[in-house]
Write the C-alpha cells for this entry.
Amino acid sequence: MKVKSIILTTLALVLATGCNGQSKQEVKQEKQNTMSKSIVIFFSHAGDNYSVGNIEVGNTKIVADYISEIAGADQFEIVTHKYDGMAYTPLIKLAQEEANRGELPPYEGAAPDLSQYDTVFIGGPVWWGTYPQVMFTLFKDINLDGKTVIPFTTHEGSGLASCVKDVKKAFPKAKVTGEFSIYGHEVRTGRAKVEKWLKGLK
C-alpha cells in the first residue's frame, strides 16, 4: 500500500507541474528577472575612516554587497578619486568645505540607466549631516520619478541625519521609504541586521 501511495503522490506532482506550465528553470528565471528590478546606488570611502582605521573596502560598500547578495540587486558605485589617500582629519575638513559651498564634485563615468528598475537603494556615509556631496552630483543626473527609493547610511553616531529629507528633496516624485542606518564599525559583522531590515521592507 505504501508503494502505491508513493506512486500516486509522485504522479500528482508531475501532473501539477505540467498543468502549471512552468519548469523549475523558468520559475528560477522569473525570480531572477523580478529581483533584477532593484539596484543599489552608493558611495563608499576606503582608506582612513573614523573608528575602523585604514580599510581597503569602505563600510557602505560592504552594506551594498549584503543588499546585492540578499535581494539580488544590481549595483552602481559612485566613484571619485578626489579623496584618495587622504587622512581622516583633512578629509572631514574638505567634506565640510564642500558642503558649506554646495560644491558638486565630479564622479567617474556616466550616470546609470535606471529605466529597468522599480526600486533604488541609495547609500553612503554621513558626512556633516548628510550624504557626501559627490552623491548629489549624481542625483542631478538621474530621474527617479515613480520609483521606490530606499535610503541607507553608515555612520558613527549620526544615524540617518538629513539624508532621508535630502533624498526626498532631490526626488520629490519618488516614493522614499524603508530607510536604514548602521554603525560603520558594525558592518563587517552586521549582515544579519541588514537581512532583517530587508525582510521587513514592504
